[in-house]
Specification:
Two copies of one chain form a homodimer. By secondary structure, chain A is of the alpha+beta class. Helices cover 17% and strands 44% of the residues of chain A. The first copy, chain A, is built from four helices and 13 strands. The radius of gyration of chain A is 27 Å and the shape is elongated. Mean pLDDT of chain A is 84; it is low at 1-13 and 237-241. Chain B binds a DNA duplex through residues 30, 32-34, 36, 61-63, 66-69, 93, 118, 120-123, 152-153, 171-172, 175-177, 181, 208-210.
DNA sequence: CACTGAATGTCGTAT
DNA sequence: ATACGACGTTCAGTG
């Protein structure tokens, strides 16, 4: 492999732990899974040390107008900067940045950042419901969380007041996909004689209308759950009123 | 409404058409659909004039570690900067940025950027195919695009050379999910007597092997399409050779 | 405003 | 590598 050495920088222009911010008048073209062209304008270019490249306008929120995720190889040409080509390794994707004017070009060392900690809602929903299955249906009791099947675990496996089996799929928001997922599980579960009559319940904070329609067509029940109410059920010392 | 005026800036700190880039040692906390906390570290903060806020590390690619999409209200406190609170309007989402050190704080006017042009998205495939259904199968003719069903529209509804109905699902890349989607449509369509024998075709630029296998097992056809070839069909003055 | 489906989705994980 | 599910998905289009 021959090192790529155009312009001022070698293949990886950034030392570990830094970002490079370029304000430049440029035209950008992405070719790969599709072709996306940005006409010439002043834009913000962000180069991260992991090889990420982002092209941002001053609007458009969250999403870059164009970008490339790692791993990448970055070539630069010209001094002053005229052109940057970002290639995605092991792929034909590429980002061509034609630069006509550089207003600013600075790098900042950032160092290593410890990791982001997330406390999700979905897990909490499952934990809460597993201790309050009666809220889904009177008399429903938990047999096991994460009941294994050949194609993935059922969130909750329960038995109803008549001892009939009930599989529960939990989502924050239930879409058609949630109904499909539960349908697949049931299809498999019902091959087991004991579970031939297993019912299904989709439990979610919100159930999309089309998901509900499909669930009904498939003979599945839908239950909308209120996390606050369930939390209250779990903590009897906290009353709702 | 009382204007929010902490620190140096009023509610919307940026004039139209600019970005503000801050390199700062900070701790960030998002609360909303979940709670996500970033421990103190040097980070890049990007404020766009549309109200977007992004918190980036030097790694992690494409995605900000934390962010807020418009519409937002931004409060700043302290000089030097100590704290930034970003609130999402009409929502309880908020981003708290506690700043211990500012290494850089610059704004750049970017002006208005003309829009991004994309080629090769699914819509384009659908447009092209709708005028060249014969390419999918000899004699196939379009009856209607976006044929409505209770669970969403069928991309193309056609009739074949024997006047039999054919539902077509179009994807850029067909995965198992595309096959599932078409299966759902057919399940519903076939409840209508006239459509009881409706066939299905998955049309995509690329069809994943497992998607093809599932399609075959379900009695659906798969066709890989070449957008360039179809374009050529639509524009007879352009020949392929 | 709510709902739906596409996306260069991205990102992690299990197979 | 591929498939699959989750994501603070985001985003655009439509009723």
């Amino acid at each position: 492999m021959i090192a790529v050495l155009f312009g001022r920088y070698p293949l990886s222009p950034l030392r570990s732990g830094s970002v490079r911010l370029v304000i430049a008048r440029c035209e950008v073209r992405y070719t790969g899974r599709l072709t996306a062209t940005l006409p010439e304008a002043l834009r913000l270019l962000v180069f991260k040390s992991d090889g990420s490249v982002m092209v941002h306008a001053d609007t458009g929120g969250y999403k870059p107008e164009n970008w490339m995720t790692p791993p990448t190889a970055i070539e630069e040409r010209g001094d002053p900067l005229e052109r940057i080509v970002v290639r995605k390794l092991r792929s034909d994707d590429r980002l061509d940045i034609a630069i006509s004017e550089v207003l600013s070009d600075v790098s900042h060392a950032l160092g290593d950042a410890r990791e982001l900690e997330k406390q999700g809602v979905e897990t909490e929903l499952q934990e809460a419901l597993s201790e309050a299955t009666g809220w889904l249906e009177p008399g429903l009791r938990l047999v096991r969380r994460e009941w294994p099947t050949g194609i993935g675990p059922v969130d909750l496996m329960c038995r109803d007041s008549d001892d009939g089996w009930v599989a529960v799929e939990i989502k924050r928001m239930a879409t058609i996909e949630a109904v499909e997922q539960l349908s697949r599980y049931l299809e498999l579960l019902r091959e087991t004689p004991d579970l031939a009559a297993c019912r299904g319940i989709v439990a979610a904070q919100t159930v999309k209308p089309q998901a509900r329609a499909l669930a009904v067509a498939r003979g599945l029940d839908c239950v909308e759950i209120d996390l606050d109410v369930i939390r209250a059920l779990r903590e009897p010392d906290l009353t709702l009123f």
